[in-house]
Design goal:
By secondary structure, this protein is α/β, with parallel strands linked by helices. The chain has two domains: 6-251 and 456-480, 3-Layer(aba) Sandwich (Aldehyde Dehydrogenase, Chain A, domain 1), CATH 3.40.605.10; 256-437, 3-Layer(aba) Sandwich (Aldehyde Dehydrogenase, Chain A, domain 2). Helices cover 39% and strands 23% of the residues. The strands form six sheets. The chain has a seven-stranded mixed β-sheet, sandwiched between helices. Strands 9-8-7-10-11-21 form a six-stranded mixed β-sheet, sandwiched between helices. A three-stranded antiparallel β-sheet has the order 5-6-22. Helix 6 links the parallel strand 8 and strand 9. It starts with 8 loop residues before the first strand and ends with a strand. The structure holds 1,4-dihydronicotinamide adenine dinucleotide and magnesium ion (MG).
């Protein structure tokens, strides 16, 4: 398939070029242009909402199995083209090729899952207390859904929002992250060609401040689902709730991996390497706090540092690299700033990361491991979103839980232990939405509910059947026969 010179926005069945274009470059090689994308503005959002409102009733009225055929066809094409599109994803975002391909496969899986979901029951029946009367509860679409997504999972996050939105009968206005719109553009292209009627899925690529804000403010958008930073999410929720719209947020994390004295050390180190440094640490589920109890602390830190020193960082398409470049200049600056903050706070960088020369002009950053840190330090409290982890020493499980819970966030927490009793306590007492036992904090599956506690999430859970809560509304009907 030939790539358009400028990728247009998709509004109501039209391909629309704006008067502004953004060029996206490969973070592994800044000399390489990944694509050029038309930038939408607030007026385009108004048109997209109008198109979505016009399309929503007919789409919502279609039988689920009929909607399912289109989602399943899209899943098929996403799977078939996973190598090609996954390569594009790695080129625009900088994650490894295996991860880029894996992410497109995940998107296919999500569309398959929600295609099936469109065949399942759409409600429940209740007996009335009155003879001859029945009560029906139907999960009806909410109407028009605004989808606003970040750059770090440029196809998986859009897929896990758009697939349920469409499956449950909603029309969508979608704004991907400007830094990585290529995967999102192809996702929409595949879905539209699979047979979505005009206006059911609208793509508006543009800035958060203009296009994102216009979606949040528009009274024609019945609900907004957002993934990104806590700061932006909080303001967006206030805007949407202020006009009584429905809102769902998935935000940051400062996730803890707790390593107890009885842990299998190899498992613990592997969980830390994968969880904290995989995807260049740019995951909301990254375990950027490593809490080790006294008896294992030194051995854990030593073994982890050893692994980190031999970790290969480089071009995302090089099959030998463990992680690729940082996704953007802004993110690189943020990561580097935190290295200085950590040192100024008095923590020790046992492994000190820095910009590295990987042969091509890119945002390459080697891993950092801070030790000797205290829980109140900024590097132990704030989301860095890079290949940086901070080790905190704990006395025992009680102390480790206290430290783990001393966070404004609560997305996911992991424990490495051989004790069933300790794992049970951890599952119950970690103040998070998801726990992992002897597994990295990252690696959630598409059919299980995803989301967190405290400042990590707001509104109903995403993924699996739980997605129905946000993307539908209950309509209760009382019926007397005759
Ligand atoms: P962000 O929160 O600014 O962007 C996320 C999405 O929201 C993007 O599509 C953006 O264009 C949009 N947006 C920005 N301002 C908006 C506004 N006023 N109204 C509506 N939409 C708006 O995140 P950004 O700047 O990409 O990353 C900054 C930090 O956020 C990262 O360093 C990281 O700490 C955190 N983050 C967390 C993510 C997660 O998965 N939880 C994902 C991305 C970022
Ligand atoms: Mg931002």
């Amino acid at each position: 398939m030939s790539e358009p010179t400028v990728h247009p926005n998709r509004i109501g069945g039209e391909e629309r070029l704006g008067d502004d274009v953004r060029t996206v470059r490969n973070p592994s090689d800044l000399e390489e242009v990944v694509g050029r994308f038309a930038r939408a503005g607030a007026a385009d959002v108004a048109d997209a909402v109008e198109a979505a409102r016009a399309a929503a009733p007919a789409w919502g009225a279609r039988p689920g199995p009929d909607r399912a055929r289109i989602l399943a066809a899209a899943a098929g094409e996403l799977r078939e083209r996973a190598d090609e599109l996954g390569t594009l994803l790695s080129r625009e975002e900088g994650k490894t090729l295996a991860e880029g391909i894996g992410e497109f496969r995940r998107a296919a899986e999500l569309f398959d899952y929600y295609a099936q979901e469109a065949y399942r029951p759409v409600g429940t029946l209740l007996d009335s207390a009155r003879p001859g009367v029945g009560i029906e509860v139907r999960h009806a679409p909410i109407g028009v859904v605004g989808v606003i997504t970040p750059w770090n999972f440029p196809v998986a996050i859009p897929a896990w929002k758009i697939a349920p939105a469409l499956a449950y009968g909603n029309a969508v206005v979608f704004k991907p992250a400007e830094q990585a719109p290529a995967s999102a553009w192809h996702l929409c292209d595949v879905l539209i060609r699979a047979g979505l009627p005009d206006g059911v899925l609208n793509l508006v690529i543009g800035s958060g401040r203009e296009v994102g804000a216009a979606i949040a403010e528009h009274p024609g958008v019945d609900g907004v689902t957002f993934t990104g930073s806590t700061e932006i999410g909080r303001a967006l929720a206030a805007t949407v709730a202020g006009r009584l719209g429905k809102v769902q947020l998935e935000l940051g994390g400062k996730n803890a991996l707790v390593v107890l004295d009885d842990a299998d050390l190899d498992v613990a180190v592997e969980c830390a390497v994968q969880g904290a440094y995989g995807s260049t640490g740019q995951r909301c589920t990254a375990s950027s706090r490593l809490i080790a109890t006294r008896g294992v602390h030194d051995a854990f830190v030593e073994a982890l540092a050893e692994r980190l020193r031999s970790l290969r960082v480089g071009h995302a398409l090089d099959p030998e690299v463990f992680y690729g470049p940082v996704a953007s200049e802004a993110q690189l600056r943020q990561d580097l700033a935190y290295l200085e903050i950590g040192e100024a706070e008095g923590a020790t960088a046992l492994v000190r990361g820095g910009e590295i020369d990987a042969g091509r002009p890119g945002h390459y950053l080697s891993p950092t491991l801070f030790v000797g840190a205290r829980p109140e330090m900024r590097i132990a409290q704030e989301e860095i979103f890079g290949p940086v982890a901070t080790v905190l020493e704990a006395q025992d499980l009680d102390d480790a839980l206290r430290i783990a819970n001393d966070s404004p966030y609560g997305l996911v927490a992991a424990v490495a232990t051989r004790s069933l009793a300790a794992a049970e306590r951890f599952k119950r007492e970690a103040e998070v939405g998801m726990t992992m036992v002897n597994l990295p904090t990252a690696g959630q599956e598409a059919h299980a509910p995803f989301g967190g506690a405290k400042a990590s999430s707001y509104g109903p859970r995403e993924q699996g059947r739980y997605a129905r809560e946000f993307f539908t509304t209950a309509r209760t009907a009382y019926v007397r026969a005759g």
